[in-house]
Design goal:
Number of domains: 1
Order of helices and strands: EEHHHHHHHHH
Structural class: mainly alpha
Oligomer: single chain
Strand content: 5-15%
Distance between the termini: 37 Å
Number of strands: 2
Length: 188
């Protein structure tokens, strides 16, 4: 996946760029009533969803990818006559590109649990952006990966001596100690 969350896909014989930045993910969540990760899981697992959700993912992905809004709406309306399974697969790819970012670089720490129905708590994003002096418009234009990299860079600049993340071995040792599986004190 790309760092800015875009993916180029063929849709009814034409190649289009799709991108779901943070503002697009927020609009998708509002349109569907479900979090983007929950939608993606639903598409993959064959859980119940509405075709409107597939259409909304593709429409907002087109807009985020640079397609003018009227054209994106027209393309989305034209999807009704196309085979459903390939459209679901494309919507899943668009969501995955927007949520995953770059596979080769891990940024920051693992995130906490999602809210009900996989919904993202966007208020925390805006609060964090305000604390870092990042304008809301810039935040909304970023992919999740870009935001994670921005936060990681901000935190490292403010505290370059901060402790590094625990290694998997250190995490296991700490967990064993917390569970009382070890007689000595906490791991060093």
């Amino acid at each position: 996946m790309s760092r800015d969350g875009h993916i180029d896909l063929d849709l009814d014989g034409a190649t289009h760029r799709f991108r779901l930045a943070i503002g697009d993910l927020e609009a998708l969540q509002e349109a569907t009533g479900a979090g983007p990760a929950d939608l993606l899981h639903g598409f993959h697992a064959g859980r119940r969803y509405r075709f409107r959700d597939v259409r909304d993912v593709l429409r907002l992905g087109l807009i985020g990818g640079g397609t003018p809004v009227p054209q994106a709406h027209a393309i989305a309306r034209s999807l009704d006559g196309l085979p459903c399974i390939p459209l679901i697969a494309k919507a899943a790819l668009v969501l995955a590109a927007g949520l995953e970012g770059a596979e080769d670089e891990r940024v920051g720490r693992p995130s906490g649990a999602a809210g009900p129905e996989g919904r993202i708590a966007f208020a925390a994003f805006y609060g964090g952006a305000a604390a870092m002096g990042l304008p809301a418009a810039d935040l909304r234009a970023m992919s999740l990966w870009q935001l994670a990299a921005y936060i990681d860079g901000f935190n490292r600049a403010r505290d370059p001596e901060a402790a590094q993340d625990l290694t998997p071995h250190e995490e296991d040792a700490l967990w064993a100690w917390l569970q009382g599986d070890v007689d000595e004190g906490p791991p060093a």
